[in-house]
Amino acid sequence: MTRVAIVTGGTRGIGKAICLALQAQGVKVAANYAGNSAAADAFAAETGIPAYRFDVGDHAATLAGCAQIAAELGPVDIVVNNAGITRDGVLHKMSFEDWNEVMRINLGGCFNMAKATFPGMRERGWGRIVNIGSINGQAGQYGQVNYAAAKSGIHGFTKALAQEGAKYGVTVNAIAPGYIDTDMVAAVPAPVLEKIIAKIPVGRLGHAEEIARGVAFLSSDEAAFITGSTLSINGGQHMY
Ligand code: NDP
């Protein structure tokens, strides 16, 4: 049986690597993105994976987007909540909009995607939800009260929904990446990045594929007894 997956923010960075890892596992994958159509078109042409544009922070748009994917690819078995943004700043300079936008997309997106897909998984008796948290949601990070709060919220969301899905064959887990060499980290100023790398025991940034392998495993039949768990993939930077 071919399973169907949606990877939010799947057209670039970690999400793209997750799409490819699931595709290699024989899963029929749909990637979602926010608005970078050039990246999405290049992704679709390169991988053959269809890309669907909707804002995961928008409840109605997410329900409609997931319904379209289910109509075109089939009932959704696997959801990877990977879409995320940063709007960094120290609290005394952070605007309410920057707080709210990060909560709306990074945490609200998980709720919206689950509302669209979890009931179907529960009815069919099989499902996998993997939420991409962050080391900064576990440990906190200067200048990121919004991002750290949203990512920390993802870890709580994961444990709560795991309890609701457990007896219906639906597992819900999180992965907490450390610093990974994507566009998001390329935006960090070089001197700050050097200091960050100096604190990673493995001595380098992680690669998107190293997160994707964890997602592919947690999305498989073999991971049926793992639920409510957070897998840290961070080069030893935070042992939690
Ligand atoms: P990128 O910035 O490289 O890619 C982000 C992806 O998310 C893009 O596809 C983007 O779409 C999409 N996206 C952003 N906002 C929305 C939205 N509102 N609705 C739908 N899609 C959206 O991010 P990374 O690959 O670096 O990060 C992926 C995830 O991993 C994020 O949740 C991030 O917080 C987390 N993470 C990353 C770490 C890192 O070191 N890179 C470390 C820890 C966690 P578009 O192309 O259209 O803009």
Automatic annotation (TrEMBL):
BP terms from Gene Ontology: monocarboxylic acid metabolic process; poly-hydroxybutyrate biosynthetic process
All residue ranges annotated as the Ketoreductase domain in the record: 3-178
Gene3D superfamilies according to UniProt: NAD(P)-binding Rossmann-like Domain
Keywords noted in UniProt: Oxidoreductase
Top-level EC class as recorded in UniProt: oxidoreductase
Superkingdom of the source species: Bacteria
The keyword Magnesium is annotated on this UniProt entry: no
Keyword Oxidoreductase in record: yes
GO cellular component: cytoplasm
Molecular function terms, GO-annotated: acetoacetyl-CoA reductase activity
Family membership: Belongs to the short-chain dehydrogenases/reductases (SDR) family.
Protein name, UniProt field: Acetoacetyl-CoA reductase
Source species of the chain: Novosphingobium piscinae
Record gene name: phbB
